[in-house]
Amino acid sequence: MGRMPTRIGFGRGLAQGLATTFRRMTRRAVTAQYPDVLPELPPRSRGVIALTEENCTVCMLCARECPDWCIYIDSHKEEMPPAREGGRPRSRNVLDRFAIDFSLCMYCGICIDVCPFDALHWSPEFEYAEFDIRDMTHEKDRLNQWMATVPAPPPYDPGAAEPKEIELATKAAGEGEASG
Prior knowledge:
Elements: H1 7-26, E1 48-51, H2 61-65, E2 71-80, E3 90-101, H3 110-114, E4 120-123, E5 137-138, H4 140-145, H5 164-179
Antiparallel strand pairs: 1-4, 2-3, 3-5
């Protein structure tokens, strides 16, 4: 059986609770005047997902990796002329529709992390509420508009070591020039 609280313990807890209440009552209330005064957001805060349409290659990685299945992508293939005469024509995916249903999105950022071409970014915009839940699906035009609010990436640390990819590419380019 459980132990019954003693009356002394109960009284002490009640006194502490009332003391906290009276302390808070004597302080001035701090109310955020939100619509009139916008909050100061921390740098690189997550708000809404923005799209750079030019970078999207319609690889569908973001839609496949999304745990909520809230990204909708439609595309078609176009024939591109050969790069040089006698070459074969190339096909290229063209983005027709890119939409995110923010009523389903849980803002995990997996789509942004898996995008190999930096087509998706976090924007600090957070005022995109709608009166109807069906309007929470935002198409590529609206997602493109939010790219203007995406902050620039932080600068590289000048004291950091050069990435191995750049080092290997520089080394390969140097060997190519030496043999050529």
